[in-house]
Amino acid sequence: MISTIFANLHYFVAILLFLIGFHTMLTHSNLIKKIIGMNIMETSVFLLFISVGYVRGGNAPIIDDQISAYINPLPSALILTGIVVGVSLTAFALAMVIKIYEYYGTVNTDEIMRLRDGEE
Question: Closest Cα partner for 38 from 53, 28, 50?
Answer without folding.
Answer: 28
